[in-house]
Amino acid sequence: MNWRKARVVAVFELLSTVRSKSFLITTFGMPVFLSLYGLLVAIPGLMEVQRRGEVRVYAVVDRAGVLDLAGEVAGRPEEIPQEIRDALGQLGQAETLDAALAIRGSVIFRPVEERDEAREAVQAKAVTGAYILPADYLETGRVELLVREDAGRRARKDRDAFRGLVLDRLLAGRLPEAEAGRVRQPVADLQELALAADGQERARSVWGGLVRILLPLAFAILLMLSLIMTAGGLLQATGVEKENRVVEVLLAAASPVEILAGKLLGVGATGLLQVVVWFGMLGVMGVVMAGTLAGLGVELPWPALAIAPALFVATYFFLGSLILGTGSLGTNARESQQLGMLWSVPLVAPLIFFEVILEDPGGTIARVLSWIPFTAPVTVLMRLSVAPESIAWWEVAGILAVLVAATWGSLLLAARLFRIGLMLTGSRPKLRALLRQARLGA
Amino acid sequence: MSLLVFENVHKSYGETRALAGVTLAVQPGEVVGLLGPNGAGKSTLIRILMDIIRPDAGSVRVFGEAFRRAHLDRIGYLPEERGLYLKQRVVDVMVYFGVLKGLERAEARRRAQAWLARMELGHVERWRVSQLSKGMGQKVQIASVFLPDPELCVLDEPFSGLDPINVRLVQDLIGERRRAGRTTILSTHQMNQVERLCQRVALIHQGELLVEGDVRDVRERFSRPEVRVGLASGPPPPIPGVATQTDEGDGSWRLLLESGVSPARVLAALVAAGKPVERFERVLTPMEDIFIRVVQRREAA
């Protein structure tokens, strides 16, 4: 293969795409679109903020006599697990949590003697609703909640507040305060420890675990996103040449492999450029938060992060060439897209086995999926991220070698399909004819 | 040594036979006309030379060696179905094709500008291709083919879509290339262009090479022994060896010679008879007639 020619094609494709209006609109318009989408999503939250401090009053008719309400009682604030409180505290967001809880409003329970009185209050909109504990409540656990017909469904937090009230009143005086606290919240503060090979115990933070799970997910999404974006560009680039009949001139100057590699590099670079621009914005946020992340005890999965770019590039070329090769067999742009994108489906297959791989990163399924080029990238990332010790370095090197070999093979196969596909102008060829042509090199 | 040799080349598309053992040699500096009806196998032969498709059997030798892709940098190609990148600037497309053929970018740009000027298209250098007329686009493509100064050029119907002035321009360019020792294969249906430009001709039909040779020799081979004579007055006198004479109505006469009688002998007889001869020429069958005759004969067989 003449890399000079591949480079010439790549530069041409890169400049053609980058100079187009659609590229500029997509690249810089997408963040704007996402911001607008974010605003749209935030509207319910903003409406919630406007209702800040709203007090909802519920009448309580206690025929069972278990609540012993002398007057109005405020509902207990929501229970937030200590580890979440700690984590937010480390982020300096403890006050935000209190503010958020305040925004969610408060609930007041007002004792009422009779059911009819409660009914009238509900009807008159003097209260949001009425809880009625029948005389046999202790035996049955049955409680009635009376609301107006036109009332919307009450939020879960209101019901939780009532449950908390009943729990507090049932426990009051029956158990010491500490034990009562454990009944309310059996595991208030979970300290997760990781036992290292050298026998040392180290605390595992909530955020650290989250990052280890999210990283392979983000990788898979990023890969899918860039493939979808660039595949469109790749298929369009070949479609235009097929349509304009430039392809014969092109094939007379460069081999299918050179054209294919050039297109993959050029169009791929534009796709990656977009991804870099978009994720660069997130990256800036990451740098800003780097100190905070360190403070949270987040240990980034460095082995996974180190190998991710190599996996990304190899997978991009592997799948990109297959997408381009099969896509070129399509007789129109839509068919090309459908044919080409079939290859991206196996990429996310490891996500189906997500739980299995998480539970047993060194198990048979994880190992087998690691050696299949389609599923290797996400599986290897998951294993390296969750449990680096589950995969040996020789295994990683071997898998990368298989991926590189598969990429070269797919490039050659795609070149043959590309050569056949670009010469087609009418109907799609039959599979048998296709195989014969591919064997003969068209 | 031949510049290009197709040796017993076969190619089929499924059940359809496109080429059935074509052997053809092209000499350096020649302009060779590649003729044949639609679907004869001309484009397949050209595409095999350009490595766009591969032959089922047979071989191609070019520049004295077995074909390699690297040879394509020395071969220019104008396909019949033409196209350019519509959204690109004219000069950028020409530079792209030039660089792909091995030129340095700066050199390709310099040559592109020179060729545009030569094609009287200097003013469209910065235009988008989509802004060009059909004829302009055609000239840009021809210029792109000539830009790397290829040793061998394959032009498939280069005159289609051109007005007479531009036809003459392209004819001149092909002539210049021939004088510079460059070789051209001209695939066309315009027989007058073949007679005017080509030294040799190859006629393909149903994947087989039916006729090949020097243009004049081929025309001779397919012609009857006839001469056309223009006389200042009256009909030609009876000349021994002339079987029939036909008045063509414009002062000229067509004389059919008997077997073994040379035109020179007839001319000498006319002069000896004291007839003032204004015009005397060998009547050769036009390539178009030969084409039709060969194809029809083949189909009848």
- The N- and C-terminal alpha carbons of chain B lie at a distance of 36 Å
Across the major sheet of chain B, the strand order is 6-7-8-3-9-10
**Fraction of helical residues of chain B:** 25-40%
Number of DSSP strand runs of chain B: 14
Radius of gyration of chain B: 23 Å
Assembly type of the shown chains?
Answer: heterodimer
Q: In sequence order, what are the helices and strands of chain B, one letter per element?
A: EEEHEEEHHHEHEHEEHEEEHEH
Main sheet attributes: strand count, strand direction, barrel closure of chain B: 6 strands, mixed
What summary fits the major beta sheet of chain A? 5 strands, mixed
Mean pLDDT of chain B: 89
Q: Give the averaged pLDDT of chain A, no decimals.
A: 77
Number of helices of chain B: 9
In spatial order, strands of the major sheet of chain A run 2-3-1-4-5
Order of helices and strands of chain A: HHEEHHEHEHEHHEEHHHHHHHHHHHH
- Label the structural class of chain B: alpha/beta
Please name the two chains that share the biggest interface, counting residues whose Cβ lies under 8 Å from a Cβ on the partner chain: A-B, 27 and 30 residues
Rg of chain A over CA atoms, rounded to whole Å, is 31 Å
Descriptors:
heterodimer; A: about 450 residues; alpha/beta; 5-stranded mixed β-sheet; two-stranded antiparallel ribbon; 20 helices; B: about 300 residues; 9 helices; 14 strands
Task: Please describe the topology of this protein.
The complex is a heterodimer of chains A (442) and B (301).
Chain A: H1 3-18, H2 21-50, E1 55-62, E2 73-74, H3 82-90, H4 94-103, E3 106-111, H5 115-123, E4 129-133, H6 137-140, E5 144-146, H7 156-171, H8 177-184, E6 192-195, E7 201-204, H9 206-244, H10 247-251, H11 256-288, H12 290-295, H13 302-327, H14 333-341, H15 349-352, H16 354-359, H17 364-371, H18 376-386, H19 393-423, H20 431-440
Parallel strand pairs in A: 1-3, 1-4
Antiparallel strand pairs in A: 2-3, 4-5, 6-7
Helix pairs in contact in A: 1-11, 9-11, 9-13, 9-14, 9-18, 11-13, 11-19, 13-14, 13-18, 13-19, 17-18
Chain B: E1 4-13, E2 16-26, E3 31-35, H1 42-49, E4 57-62, E5 65-66, E6 75-78, H2 90-100, H3 105-118, H4 134-146, E7 152-156, H5 164-179, E8 183-187, H6 191-197, E9 200-205, E10 208-214, H7 215-221, E11 226-231, E12 242-247, E13 252-257, H8 263-272, E14 277-282, H9 287-300
